[in-house]
Design a protein that fits this description.
Elements lengths: L4 E6 L5 E3 L19 H10 L8 E3 L5 E5 L3 E7 L2 E5 L2 E3 L5 E3 L5 E6 L5 E5 L30 E3 L22 E7 L8 H9 L2 E3 L7 E5 L14 E2 L4 E3 L7 E3 L6 E2 L3 E5 L4 H5 L6 E6 L4
Parallel strand pairs: 12-20
Antiparallel strand pairs: 1-4, 1-11, 2-3, 3-10, 4-9, 5-8, 5-10, 6-7, 6-9, 12-19, 13-14, 13-20, 14-17, 15-18, 16-17, 16-19
């Protein structure tokens, strides 16, 4: 086993390997996947001197703990959390030197949902269809981490960033999602369209990497017949039989049989990745470009 590796001491509730994803395979039924908070993943890669496509760790709420087999530079970003090396506090949102054999602990999210751990050289698990991302829906890529997993690391290519702390957006106190209506908005009553764009929803605890589920008023359909399965895209707002909107995230299915009432602007999805259960959600209709 190479000395360029990380040993997982504590995997946490859900920690996965993520990179830019595997776009372009929807016709094969393969979701895009990739880091849910793309800007946060890109930032920890920049801080550790990695290329943009390098794979990072994405934690969910509870953090993780890892031990490198050689000295590495690490940066933790995304959801703010306590970071320690062998029990000593170190900076969040900045490059940190971790000696060989030291224990890096990424704590529970103080706010937000997902923290990102960039390691110099990147996580070098074997790529599948051009990506190292874990896809929870299809099962492609490495499985979610478990205690004792050993992750190979690539060789560092650049020096890490010389910064004290890199500014990052706070987790949303209220999640505002700009949406383009359609393609199946005509399957809903005018009142349902008014409700969608005027009432407040909340993030459901049932949300995951596949979709952000909401709690709130049900949307009434004008057409109740079955809809043949059709392609769905990242950010699609699908309405299942209970009438509560679901925003499709990176591991979403490539086809669906429930009507899509609107599509969220891609730029707003990083905030959706950090919206904790209970966060208020507003859908704001914008014109088609």
């Amino acid at each position: 086993m190479t000395d360029r590796a990380l040993s997982v001491v504590r995997a946490g509730p859900l920690t996965t390997v993520q990179d830019l994803g595997r776009p372009g395979h929807a016709h094969l039924g393969v979701p895009r996947s990739g880091a849910l908070d793309g800007p946060a993943a890109a930032l920890v890669n920049r801080m550790t001197g990695n290329a943009p496509e390098a794979a990072v760790l994405e934690t969910t709420l509870g953090g993780c703990a890892v031990r490198p087999r050689s000295a590495v530079t690490v940066a933790v970003g995304g959801a703010p959390c306590r970071v320690t090396v062998d029990g000593r506090p170190v900076a969040w949102g900045a490059p940190v030197h971790v000696p060989e054999g030291a224990l890096l602990e990424v704590g529970a999210a103080v706010s937000g949902v997902r923290s990102y751990v960039g390691v110099s050289g990147g996580i070098a698990v074997e790529p599948v269809l051009g990506s190292r991302s874990t896809d929870l829906l299809s099962g492609l890529g490495p499985p979610p981490l478990t205690d004792g997993t050993v992750l190979p690391l690539g060789r560092p290519t650049w020096l890490h960033a010389r910064v004290d702390v890199a500014p990052q957006p706070a987790a949303p106190a209220e999640l505002v999602l700009r949406v383009t209506l359609g393609p199946r908005d005509d399957w809903f009553t005018p009142e349902a369209m008014r409700v969608l764009t005027s009432r407040v929803y909340r993030v459901s605890p049932a949300s995951n990497r596949i979709g952000l589920r909401t709690e709130g008023p049900a949307l009434e359909r004008a057409l109740t017949r079955e809809l043949p399965s059709e392609g769905v895209v990242l950010g699609a707002v699908q309405v299942p039989p209970d009438g509560r909107p679901v925003v499709f995230l990176a591991d979403h299915p490539t086809t669906g049989g429930y009507p899509v009432i609107a599509v969220v602007r891609t730029a707003d999805l990083a905030a959706a990745a950090q919206a904790a259960p209970g966060t208020p959600v507003r859908f704001v209709a914008v014109r088609r470009r």
